[in-house]
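dumping this here before i forget
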Amino acid sequence: MRIGHGFDVHRTCAGDHVVLGGVTIAHDRALQAHSDGDVLIHAVCDAVLGALGAGDIGHHFPDSDPANAGIDSRELLRRVARLMVDGGLRVANLDSTIVAEAPKMAPHIDSMRANLAADLGVPVERVNVKATTTERLGYTGRGEGIAAHAVVLLEPAGA
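structure:
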């Protein structure tokens, strides 16, 4: 078994939606990023890459590469999942947390779980997504950014 942890944060900027877990959510702000800014998927990618001992998302998909400009983060996750499968591993379970004051995440959690499970090639029961606030403390509490944490346990694909 292999364990990996991922974390990502992006600052907010002018806009009308955020993308989290591959779900477009109406919001009075957007996330500033080279890609679509999906901090949840970026944290999941880093967790899987960490469990593989394969560096991080910035190493595999640098923001200096024009091919990554505006890229759908689900595509990045599918590429990371291919590395996992090629390494003979699969997700035993994934637990993740979005840290944001707004927008409300609860209506979108099931769709996020379904997207992550599909891209990782596992049943949705192996994927958990939670959301929390920081009680208006710090940069997420002030609405200056949205963050996400992810922990993944990988097991041999034949287990």
